[in-house]
Amino acid sequence: MHVDFISAIHRSTPRDYVARVTEHDKAACAEIACRFGEDYWDGERHVGYGGYHYDGRWRVVAEAMAKHYNLQPGSRILDVGCGKAFLLYEFAQVVPDAQVAGVDISEYGLAHAKEEVRPYLTLANATSLPFDDNAFDLVYSINTLHNLYAPDLHNALKEMQRVGRQHKHIVVEAYRNEREKVNLMYWQLTCRAFHTPAEWEWLFKQAGYEGDWSFIYFE
Q1: Which of 21, 76, 145, 158 is 20 to 30 A from 14, comparing alpha carbons?
Q2: Is the whole model's pTM more than 0.90, yes or no?
Q3: Residue 156 Ramachandran class (φ > 0 left, ψ -120 to 50 alpha, else beta)
């Protein structure tokens, strides 16, 4: 089912799509970004976030998700592609006694994650989650799975379904028309999966993923 929690945050960031491909060598920038190191997280804007620091913006998302999924004290929550784990930290504040866990392939991201949740983070790939079946009450992945090629994407979806015993939520980039497709291609640095919403939903079904989803668009 389509359930949106983050569009407002996504739309709050201004983007100059044309400048993204005219002011720097876009291919070279993407190669740097795909290392998911310091340049990607805390370097210049044209190779990543331009400095990804905690500012509290994810609190409203954690509150909305916790309410929607009726998370109870002690709920087990997994973030697939947690990065610096700002949202996971907010869940730890919003849900009493939450048992949080996060995985990411970025050593730099994990090393510079929120200190309070850093002990619960693991260097791991979404295609092979180091957890038992049905281990979590909520498994989510925000702005991560579109960075995977088709075979890995399929496996990651199956893994999220496997470890989640109840609620699951995915957010990925998508496009609904030619303008949004061009804007996405201009802006993205690490995306491997370029799909319409209908294509994404087909992929979810093929992998047996039964959770919720939403899309961000570059309008």
Answers
A1: 145
A2: yes
A3: alpha
